[in-house]
Amino acid sequence: DANEAAGVIKNTMQDATQTPFAFEGLLAANKALISAGVNSEDARKDVLNLSNAIAATGGGDDELNRMVVNLQQIRNTGKATAMDIKQFAFAGVNIYAVLAAAGVKLGEGQDATYEQITMALKKAHDKGGIYFNGLENMANATSVKISNLGDAFFQLNVKIFNYFKP
Q1: DSSP symbols for 54-118
Q2: Residues 41-50 pLDDT 10s
Q3: Is the CB of residue 32 less than 8 Å from the CB of residue 72?
Q4: Which pTM was predicted?
Q5: pLDDT, tens only, 76-125
């Protein structure tokens, strides 16, 4: 609905000023997961946890865009194929280590589910996780702070425009 959509945009604007990722990429990421049937609150959490893993391994917007499409595909098919797992590796995220650290044990020929992967990414982001504070640490870099200042300035311009528009 319109209120939920406005909330997604508002939350994404906030996330863009607090993370090393661009507003457009974060919005597309949320949109991709929502279109796969994830509710907006969970989509935001899943995007931020995925962003954390990508930031912790030195990735950026390109890796986030690719991996969100990968997560969307996993959500739509119900399982992570061998190629999906390789995509995590291409983005620098050792998803097997993430799953193992979260206590997910996959047997021979067994595929991980969207729920297992997103739960493992959340645990990796949490205190004691293998990618703990990756997003927050990268967000504290000077270049990211400057970029986030630009995002905040853009959002101020949007607010000013909306206030004064005819």
Answers
A1: HHHTT--HHHHHHHHHHHHHHHHHSS--HHHHHHHHHTT--HHHHHHHTT--PPTTPPPPHHHHH
A2: 999 999 999 9
A3: yes
A4: 0.84
A5: 999 998 889 889 999 999 998 999 999 998 877 788 999 999 999 999 99
